[in-house]
Design goal:
Largest sheet of chain A: 5 strands, mixed
Largest sheet of chain B: 6 strands, mixed
Number of strands of chain A: 5
Structural class of chain B: alpha+beta
Strand content of chain A: 35-45%
Strand order of the largest sheet of chain B: 2-1-6-3-4-5
Largest interface: A-B, 22 and 33 residues
Distance between the termini of chain B: 29 Å
Distance between the termini of chain A: 40 Å
Structural class of chain A: mainly beta
Oligomer: heterodimer
Radius of gyration of chain A: 12 Å
Strand content of chain B: 15-25%
Number of strands of chain B: 17
Helix content of chain B: 40-55%
Radius of gyration of chain B: 22 Å
Strand order of the largest sheet of chain A: 2-1-5-3-4
């Protein structure tokens, strides 16, 4: 199935500077796995947002994607 | 500390002018840093007296690995906080740890009060209390320049100083260390101001050869490589902590307009990316750190008619952008830098300042206070008004601003609006409205800081919420950070300094501690903190959390008030058990 991944500025270093990626993943793939398939290291992922129109929702570790889903991947919060 | 079986403590009594040096073997079981600073606070504090009473101590300490390993750059200060009335604990980078190390002191205890404005000049062989009447009233930059030019001597030097806010005992006055570094939180500047100490200069010129250089250098290089050649620290150098603006804003965890919102509509204009593209001019590092996480931004200011401009450079990071940006509805990076500059000149904690102004803005809109009191029309986004208000707080311009100078808890107690006074146990909130971990962690944290137990980090784990697990995680992290801070490692590098690495570093300089010893040290330090808090009358279960925290959704959604209080109770049970262990 096709899913769409929006990449924030920090992650463009892993995606050849692409900020929007259309990718093919197996049915039922988890959001985190789909994002990692683009080359973004799992440990670097802070949040994955499921985008639906104007609303966003956080995707948990076990969240499966559906055909046509768009997600946005954001870096983890850093600090002391 | 290195190669010695004692902790060397310099005691400065400002009342008598007497200096004493102790060699304390008994303090070694606290390892160093926050361990010895907390124990010395417990020994010297007077719980029955006000935090600003002259007999209350100020303690500075460095750790067992200070300056000789990468990113071990911090000095810790402990004191009784005039803001919260309980444990004051604050950290600063810069050159201070290096100079204390090279001057030969593991800890410095300052008690008493000078008879006139003074500065303390500390070196390996002498300690002098000098006349600072001419410096009183100056901002920290000018004081730094004066001392640099007039305190001559070889070796490395670090200069601490307070601004007008500290002189006027503003409860959240900071202490500037060298350039762009601070003991920011909980009002150390006010404590020094109450002692009439305008500045402290430390010069160190001692060199200690490493005994087993081969082993030491092997460990050093391994750590250095992890710091510089892996992704662990890359973000800190790249965009720095301002990178947090984007994910927090996108996910709904960015405190905005006094936390009436969790998303800032102008977030893109104040993101790390925006600062980097528009304002970033250089990056700096504390001594002994190869990362360079200090981001310096520049803005232009017209200082006279006829196209007379000056370029002002200030340090910026996430917390400052949140507090003086989104929290106040300030929507450009230049305006935020302007406000940081004013806070810097006055010598105040930027986070507390922003949060207090957020409350005042809403209180004015709700007519709890009047513009006669605020003098300027405080309104979200009104940078000019905020800049003036900051100076009014620092100088205690009128009764209203004098109350603001005592913190948002006090101001809301006097004028109302406690439900939107955004503090945890009197310490103004940090910039993470992330969920249960952050809220509970800030309430139970020893100094009510997000840095006590990293609750915001727990909230972004992506794991399903489980209150017991969150509480366990906060409790374990609080103890672990006591151990880490006994080494004064910059917490940005906490993922570099895992237990194995810490032991390798300690062992390479002849310290034979084990993993179990580190666990015991962490617990011992936390027990000491809990005893101090208890002696000062603090009760975790008695903390009232402002309603706004439960009204505005976090990035985990709405947080249940009932669950938060239940979690505080669960945590308190663990803390009580530790106290009697």
């Amino acid at each position: 199935m096709k899913v769409y991944i929006e990449v924030s500025e920090w992650f463009k270093r892993y995606t050849n500077n692409c900020s929007y990626i259309e990718t093919e993943v197996p049915e039922g793939s988890l959001a985190y796995d789909a994002v990692c398939s683009t080359g973004i290291p799992r440990g670097q992922i802070g949040f994955i947002l499921l985008k639906s129109g104007e609303t966003n929702a956080l995707a948990g570790e076990e969240h499966p994607l559906r055909e046509g889903d768009t997600v946005k991947v954001l870096p983890s919060i850093i600090g002391g | 500390m290195i190669y010695n079986n004692y902790i060397k403590v310099l005691n400065v009594d400002l009342n008598t002018g007497k200096i004493r040096i102790d060699q304390r073997q008994d303090l070694c079981e606290y390892l160093g840093g926050v361990g010895i600073a907390t124990k010395l606070l417990e020994e010297n504090m007077k719980p029955e007296l006000s935090p600003l009473d002259e007999s209350q101590p100020v303690i500075f300490a460095i750790g067992a690995l200070s300056t000789i390993f990468p990113v071990v750059t911090k000095t810790v200060a402990t004191f009784i906080s005039p803001l919260t009335g309980e444990l004051g604990e604050s950290y600063a980078g810069g050159r201070m740890a290096l100079t204390m190390f090279m001057a030969g002191y593991d800890a410095i205890v300052i008690t008493g009060k000078a008879t006139k404005p003074s500065y303390i000049s500390i070196s390996r062989n002498t300690v002098e209390v000098k006349d600072a009447r001419a410096l009183w009233g100056m901002n920290s930059e000018r004081v730094g320049r004066y001392i640099r030019e007039n305190e001559l001597g070889g070796g490395k030097r670090s200069i601490l100083r307070i601004g007008p806010a500290g002189e006027n005992t503003c409860s959240f006055a900071s202490v500037c260390v060298d350039t762009y570094r601070h003991f920011g939180r909980l009002g150390l500047g006010a404590v020094l101001g109450s002692k009439k100490v305008k500045a402290i200069s430390i010069i160190g010129d001692r060199n200690i050869p490493v005994k087993n250089f081969k082993e030491y250098f092997k460990v050093y290089q391994e750590i250095y490589k992890r710091v510089t050649d892996t992704e662990i620290m890359a973000k800190y150098h790249d965009a720095g902590t301002p990178i947090n603006i984007e994910p927090l804003n996108a996910a709904g965890g960015l405190p905005t307009k006094n936390l009436r919102q969790n998303v800032f509509e102008h977030g893109e204009n104040i993101s790390g990316e925006a600062f980097a593209k528009k304002n970033l001019i250089r990056k700096m590092a504390c001594t002994g750190c190869p990362v360079g996480c200090i981001h310096i931004g520049q803005f232009r200011r017209e200082f006279d008619k006829g196209h007379e401009y000056e370029a002002i450079s200030v340090g910026y990071d996430y917390e400052l952008i949140f507090a003086l940006g989104s929290f106040l509805g300030v929507k450009t990076s230049e305006e935020i830098l302007e406000l940081i500059d004013v806070v810097e000149e006055m010598g105040m904690d930027a986070m507390s300042t922003g949060v207090i102004l957020g409350w005042a803005t809403e209180a004015l809109a709700k007519k709890l206070i009047t513009q006669e009191q605020t003098i300027v029309p405080l309104a979200f986004g009104n940078t000019k008004a905020y800049a003036e208000a900051i100076t009014y707080i620092a100088t205690r311009k009128n009764e209203f601003y004098s109350t603001l100078a005592m913190g948002v808890a006090k101001a809301s107690e006097v004028y109302g609006g406690q439900e939107f006074a955004m503090h945890f146990a009197k310490n103004e909130m940090a910039g993470y409205h992330t969920g249960y971990g952050m809220i509970v962690g800030s309430v139970v944290g020893a100094r009510h800081s997000h840095l006590c137990n990293g609750g915001y980090s727990v909230d972004q784990s992506g794991k399903p919420f489980d209150k017991e697990k969150v509480v366990d995680s906060l409790f374990a992290e609080e103890k672990e950070r006591c151990m880490l801070n006994s080494l004064t490692i910059c917490l940005f590098a906490r993922k570099v300094y895992d237990r194995k690495t810490i032991l390798a570093a300690l062992n390479s300089i002849g310290n034979t501690l084990t993993d179990e010893d580190l666990t015991a040290i962490g617990e011992r330090i936390y027990q000491t903190k809990l005893r101090i808090k208890k002696a000062l009358g603090f009760d975790q279960t008695g903390v009232k959390i402002p309603k706004r925290f439960f009204e505005t959704p976090t990035l985990q959604g709405q947080v249940s008030e009932e669950t938060v209080y239940e979690m505080v109770g669960l945590y308190n049970k663990r803390a009580e058990e530790l106290l009697v262990k």
